[in-house]
Amino acid sequence: MKLLATYYSVTDCTIGEGTVVRDFVNLYGCKIGRDCKIAAYAEIQKDVVIGDRCKVEAFAFIPTGVTIEDEVFIGPHAVFTNDLHPRAVGDWAITPTVVQKGASIGAGAVIVCGVTIGANATVGAGAVVTKDVPPGATVVGNPAHLIERRE
Q: Is residue 85 flagged as an active site residue?
């Protein structure tokens, strides 16, 4: 790991060789692969797994329950959720989300938990993903809908 930061919180993480971490990040209990770039103000929570050669842009929020495979781009201000019925008090259940190899998540996108974003899929900026995104698909809007499919 190459820590290019003065102000940060990195606790109980496994971070691969060649990964660059910038200032003001909160990383705890996560596993980040090799040759990744984690930008300023990102938060990556406990038990998140991020593959190799990924890029997580500024202000991204990745909570427990998210798995990100290799070569994925997470745009600035992208947000993942992990509970379908959040409450301030009482029990809650983590609902897993998977982002497959080579997918790109645009700036400001919201990924509602329980979905799979397919390999090489693209989620447009500001999209709200509530259903699975097929491999090679491009989705945009709220709720996100298919506009293109590449093979």
A: yes
